[in-house]
Amino acid sequence: MSRTRDWSLAFGISFGLAGIAPPALAHHSFAMFDFEKTVSIEGTIRQFQWTNPHVVIWVDVPSAEGEEPKLWAVEITSPGNLMRAGWTKRSFNPGDRVSVSLGPLRNGRTGGAFQGAKNLTTGEDLVYDYAKLAQVQGGRE
What is the value of pTM for the model shown? Predict the structure, then answer.
């Protein structure tokens, strides 16, 4: 094998691996969430952030009288997974009243991992069953 061919092969492999690395580095663990606990919040949608890699629901939750509402960030899965589960980018809209259950952040801040929600404005129950979706995608249903 010639040196040029060796160099081309090495460059091609390196370039291919570099293309794989950014998505792997961008993904994070769910260790920051406490799935042993469930917290329920009720408030108003500030923003429904329908973006990869994870959709985020931003909810203004009323505080004690006279205080500013607290902003909660509720993280879900990707838009693609949610679409396969029947969600759309209009499942929540700014101003909608919601009740959300979540696994809270371990550090005590206002946020967590989505478990379920009811859009009180539309009456729609929104769920995302990670285990059931894996069965459907795996062809077991």
Answer: 0.72
